[in-house]
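Render this sequence as a predicted structure.
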Amino acid sequence: MTGENADAPNDSLGDFRLSGQCKFCIHHFTGTWGACSAFPNGIPIDVYVGQRSHQTPIEGDNGIQFRLINDHTVQ
């Protein structure tokens, strides 16, 4: 999930939808599709659709894991 899908609309990949795990993570790049601080070149599809938790390290995540957006981080 890299450049070839970079223009997909509405946080979607075909029939796949952005998981709550990504949608509510402080590291997700708002207004972009399929990228975050952990995976700037594309979130792995199993993480993106919620089949795999990112609350523990995953190879290639640059040492960054899921962190819930909370009232203190939302402007």
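Summary. The mean pLDDT is 77. Residues 1-75 form one domain.
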